[in-house]
Write a structure and sequence with these properties.
Elements lengths: L8 H6 L4 H31 L8 H25 L2
Helix pairs in contact: 2-3
Length: 84
């Protein structure tokens, strides 16, 4: 059982060759899409509510949403379309 608890989820994304692995990755990606939706809504609220500070301007939050969250979400949605 050495190394059993140290599995990296991102490593598994590219190495799922068995059907059980594909089912697992489908569930993981669906869960991650939901998490990204929540994170995007939190960041959009920050754009509307918070006053801009020196290092966290509205442009910063918009850039954060585009670069990080929407890219991951789009990749996961593309994977789900290809593997359904």
């Amino acid at each position: 059982m050495q190394g059993y608890g140290n599995r990296n989820i991102y490593k598994d994304v590219f190495t799922c060759i068995y059907m059980s692995d594909r089912k697992k990755m489908k569930k993981v990606r669906e869960k991650r899409i939901k998490a990204m939706d929540k994170q995007i809504s939190v960041h959009e609220q920050k754009i509307e509510i918070e006053k801009p500070v020196k290092d966290t301007t509205m442009g910063y939050w918009e850039k954060e949403i585009e670069e990080k969250f929407k890219k991951i979400k789009d990749d996961d949605e593309k994977y789900l379309k290809e593997n359904n």
